[in-house]
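Quick one, tokens below. Sequence please?
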């Protein structure tokens, strides 16, 4: 059975599912999720010309003063209709609307005040319009502020609030169920007798998926037993109602590698198996009930890399992301790198500025080495050797969704 190229496998996986239905949600729940429709401003910001400083609103034509103070405006005030007359000033505070006729604000540090008379002590504000935030200078009502499919962070949530919204249409939250397979596994922190191994993939995949906006409906350790694994898969599909079931381990060709037979015994089917990538070759993709099954390899680094390149794009796609796949950028290789075989190599590396350096120990079970990395160097299958100083595509941790 030939190995599937990585890009083809990613495209086939994403084509298996449609984004979940969108629904309106309060802004407090929006960060980390995807906007389902373009966001248009429901108001002008600012709503009128506002002062950017504490001081005195004046007519620039009256420069350099002096002025007679005829009233006061604070944020929240609404200007009256009478325009400022010649030589008149309005005491004004940051965020307050300018009275009609005023076009410039003199800051209070630049004036001497004697009763109601205000004189410049310095050079004054300079040009007309100084210290004024003109109406709609940030955005105008009706303007498209955010496109559909972007991930909302704190700044976008604040923008939505200023644009007049208390809720936004958001993509759905994918539910995932995590099954860590292997009779050798014990839960993290449990006593680890000889032959046992702390299960690390479950907590890692949970952190990755939750960071991408998924909710974890179940997280279970399952021994290498066909009956128990079959039952666990059914449970994840039916009771957890998972959109995605992600297994780790048991994906390869050994006698104890049971994910494929268990999937078939549970009534599921395999769409494809084995990808031309290193690490991560044994990846399985299938379906069971309404869920997509993603069978990741057990080696911790293989699970991390396949989780970042397959699980997270699938989560983003279901959650409504316009661009679910991570984007590469170019960096300069710090060292020579050998020719690549028939599988695309995702080399764990550290990137600093524009320079990327592979980590010396590339074992797919070596989590200590992988936890020092902050990028993968992407070396496509069958590439020739590269020299230090050449450019190479990398996927850095923020692009992959692995940044802490
Ligand atoms: N004859 C062959 N052997 C192997 C092949 C192959 O093509 N032919 N592929 C190798 C590759 S590549 C990988 S990757 C591994 C992964 O295979 P599995 O998915 O079947 O993984 P397991 O054998 O179950 O486990 C591998 C390794 O990882 C440890 N493990 C498993 N689960 C966890 C977990 N949740 N947390 C931490 N560590 C875990 C497990 O104890 C094993 O040491 O197969 C190669 N073999
Ligand atoms: O693909 Mo395995 O993940 O090379 O170690």
């Amino acid at each position: 059975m030939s190995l599937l190229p990585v890009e083809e496998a990613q495209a086939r996986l994403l084509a298996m599912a449609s984004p979940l239905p969108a629904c309106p949600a309060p802004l407090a729940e929006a960060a980390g999720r995807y906007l389902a429709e373009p966001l248009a401003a429901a108001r002008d910001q600012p709503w009128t010309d506002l002062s950017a400083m504490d001081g005195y609103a004046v007519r620039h034509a009256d420069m350099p003063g002096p002025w007679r103070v005829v009233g006061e405006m604070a944020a929240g005030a609404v200007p009256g209709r009478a325009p400022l007359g010649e030589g008149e000033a309005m005491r004004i505070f940051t965020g307050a609307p300018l009275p009609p006729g005023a076009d410039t604000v003199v800051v209070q540090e630049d004036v001497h005040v004697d009763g109601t008379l205000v004189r410049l002590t310095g050079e004054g504000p300079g040009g007309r319009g100084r210290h004024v935030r003109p109406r709609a200078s940030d955005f105008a009502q009706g303007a498209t502020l955010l496109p559909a499919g972007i991930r909302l962070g704190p700044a976008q949530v604040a923008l939505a609030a200023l644009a007049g919204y208390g809720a936004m249409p958001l993509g759905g939250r994918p539910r995932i169920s995590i099954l860590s397979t292997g009779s050798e596994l014990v839960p993290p922190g449990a006593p680890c007798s000889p032959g046992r191994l702390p299960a690390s993939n479950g907590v890692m995949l949970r952190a990755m998926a939750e960071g991408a906006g998924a909710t974890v409906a179940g997280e279970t350790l399952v021994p290498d037993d066909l009956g128990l694994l079959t039952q666990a898969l059914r449970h994840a599909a039916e009771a957890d109602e998972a959109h995605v079931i992600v297994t780790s381990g048991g994906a390869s060709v050994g006698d104890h590698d049971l994910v494929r037979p268990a999937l078939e015994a549970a009534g599921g089917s395999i769409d494809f198996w084995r990808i031309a990538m290193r690490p991560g070759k044994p990846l399985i993709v299938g379906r069971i009930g309404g869920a997509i099954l993603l069978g990741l390899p057990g080696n911790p680094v293989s699970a991390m890399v396949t989780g970042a390149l397959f699980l997270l794009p699938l989560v983003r796609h279901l959650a409504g992301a316009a661009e679910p796949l991570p984007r590469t950028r170019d960096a300069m290789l710090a060292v020579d790198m050998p020719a690549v075989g028939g599988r695309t190599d995702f080399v764990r590396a550290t990137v600093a500025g524009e320079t990327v350096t592979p980590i010396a120990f590339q074992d797919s079970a070596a989590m200590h080495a992988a936890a020092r990395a902050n990028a993968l160097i992407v070396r496509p299958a069958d590439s020739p050797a590269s020299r230090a100083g050449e450019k190479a595509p990398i996927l850095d941790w923020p692009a992959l969704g692995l940044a802490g």
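The chain has a mean pLDDT of 96. Residues 180, 182, 184-185, 197, 199-202, 248-254, 257, 279, 281-282, 297-300, 302, 364-365 surround LQZAQKY5 (ligand 1) (CB under 6 Å).
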